[in-house]
Here is the input.
Amino acid sequence: MKILLVEDDKTIASGLDYSLQQDQFSTILCYDVESAKKIIQEQLNDISLCLFDLSLPDGSGYELCKLVKERADVPVIFLTAVDDEVNVVMGLDMGADDYITKPFRIRELLSRIKSVLRRYQKHSQSNSMIELGDVRINLLEGKVYKHGEEVVLTALEYRLLLVFANHLGQVMSRNQLLEQIWDVAGDFVNDNTLTVYIKRLREKLEDDPQSPTIIKTIRGLGYKVGD
Here is the structure.
């Protein structure tokens, strides 16, 4: 997932940029409104979330938020050094999804980012298909299609696929996957069983299960679906 970060304090910006990348996000870093506007106009379709400092040398995060919300349904979080109710309310009224006051802990910011992304993911998936390359998941029907043909999955295989789909672009450890699927079918799911289900999913969904492009193995960390 790609985050647009706009922060004029280069020390803060560098630290945030590094921390976001360490947490498996890709980033686009801007220091002013002018350069951020260019990115919004040219690359907004590729951006999953925006982090805007309110106070910028050539404008404010408000105008960037307005520009984003006019063009796409992309979440915006404000970074502000002004713990002022009027500023906060103004930002939220303009469509911002959250704000965080400096100084803040990076773990708190990451938690806020993931919370906002989860809300957007649930909203966007409520009445739509999830697409993973040539694979489509119809949430309303509870069915999966590849090249337009239905792929029959067991309840646990379907649940495992949904876990991946709900965490697109995120590396999921084996423990995280086990925590979310172990009791779905009322059966005990251990580490070996998880390996079997991932293998079965790949056999049903991948063009070449030996060289998977949908469910990718991230060596030493786990698995990832999506960029």
Notes: The CA atoms of residues 80 and 101 lie 5 Å apart. The chain has two domains: 2-125, 129-225. The chain has a mean pLDDT of 87.
